[in-house]
Amino acid sequence: MRLRADLLPHGTYSDVVLVIDVLRATTTAVTYLEHGAEALWLTASPDVALGLRAPGRVLAGERGGLPIPGFDLGNSPVQAAQNFTGRVVVMNTSNGTGAAHVAAQTGKHVFLAALTNAHAAARRARALATEEIAVVCAGTDGHVGLEDVYAAGVISEYLLAMGEFTLDDGARLALTLRRSQANPLDALRGSGHGQYLERLGLEADVQYAAGLSTSTVVPVLTPGLETPEGALRFVGG
After folding, report:
1. Of 38, 114, 121, 138, which shows the fewest CB atoms inside 10 Å?
2. Is the confidence at residue 225, as pLDDT, over 80?
């Protein structure tokens, strides 16, 4: 079994893909589903999201860390920790939703992973993979994000505890980072994007995202006739 970590989204994916955007899209996605959201629609652009506004739907997303004009909510896991029972959350973010679209082009099974659901996501991936698990880091504006690579290391470490894998260099790098930094919050606060969010006054989101395996919810890409064009449908698994 191969274990691959792409430090930025690229290439093709033949089997199981775990998409990571710790700060904050995949952490927020997990939180919405934990709090009752019926589904998440991750859109290709803000305009697609705005075109999907309807009763029972919530538009959530950001650019530059701040809410998109015309959206109901930003991209905050703290904000997502409220009752969304029966609602569809339509998301578009700077990095995470785009990474999911890249993975969905070729991945056989696509999940969203974060530190908060790291172990549950790893178990789900291991149960389904037959050839390869690819951990895809969203990064920030086309640059590698330390927080995503750290989470890839956490997931890789847990996968290795469940069985043997052939590692690529990305997975080795992620494991090295994880093993050099035991405290997830220190890792997130030490990242460039973590520091940027704290300057915006979003320290609570960074702290929330550092929670290790606080959730067993794994967002699963689930295509269907009800999925709008330009969107990916994820439900809780």
Report:
1. 38
2. no
Q: CA dist 89 to 2, 50, 173, Å?
A: 34, 12, 34
Judge if pTM exceeds 0.85. Answer: yes
Domains of the chain: 2-236 (3.90.1560.10)
CA 109 to CA 19: how far, in whole Å?
Answer: 11
Beta strand segments in 45-158, E: 57-63, 66-67, 88-92, 109-113, 132-137
pLDDT at 133: 98
Q: Which residue pairs, CB below 8 angstroms and at least 24 apart, start in 48-56?
A: 48/92, 48/228, 48/229, 48/230, 48/231, 49/90, 49/91, 49/92, 52/90, 52/228, 52/231, 53/90, 56/86, 56/87, 56/88
Average pLDDT, the chain: 97
Buried b (16+ CB within 10 A) or exposed e, 118-132: bbbbbbbbbeebeeb
Structure tokens at 23: 């700060």
